[in-house]
């Protein structure tokens, strides 16, 4: 079976884009042994759970919420749809989502102007509360976005909380610049953490091509 593969996860390296450019969120790679003093090279990774492409658990925003051990890998593998929302300014609201005919059970990846830069932009496009309310009422199963956060400038974090309380998965930090709008098979594989509120992930999209008929 032929398919096109898109790696939509951010590479992890020292100096990479991090939320609000906070130095304490930067990953650090420490070489703990190396040639020629040792017979093997080994590195130690110091990593924030929200580094790069990552999946959030309810505990991130809800006191006493479920930790990452509650996230099923099964829910992060399957069909998804990329929505082209690059026309949205400042935020994504209900009015931006209505034209896309969103259906119950869909996993949606929101492609915005955020994908036009690899650096952190303080004014990143986010999912506004009314957009989250609409998606929760529609009954989607998951939302991914091409920003290191799904919301900003909303006191009390209502977007996160509305989605979490509806059992909707949240994936942040996607890279969708090269991905056209459309249907894909998604594989998001977070680190197998148990007690944290988030986990970094590798995220892939597969677009299957119809078989070439014989002549």
* Largest sheet: spatial strand order: 4-10-9-7-5-11-12
The fraction of residues assigned to DSSP E strands is 25-35%
Q: What is the tally of helical segments?
A: 3
Terminus-to-terminus distance:
18 Å
β-strand number = 12
Shape: globular
Helix amount: 10-25%
Write the topology of this structure.
Blueprint: E1 3-7, E2 28-33, E3 42-46, E4 54-56, E5 77-84, E6 91-92, H1 94-97, E7 107-111, E8 126-127, H2 129-138, E9 142-145, H3 158-165, E10 169-172, E11 182-190, E12 198-208
Parallel strand pairs: 5-7, 6-8, 7-9, 9-10
Antiparallel strand pairs: 1-12, 2-3, 4-10, 4-12, 5-11, 11-12
Can you walk me through this structure?
By secondary structure, this protein is mostly beta strands. Helix content is 10%, strand content 30%. The protein contains 3 helices and 12 strands; from the N terminus they run ββββββαββαβαβββ. The chain has a 7-stranded mixed beta barrel. The relative contact order is 0.25.
What are its keywords?
215 residues; mainly beta; seven-stranded mixed β-barrel; two-stranded antiparallel sheet; 12 strands; 10% helix; 30% strand; globular
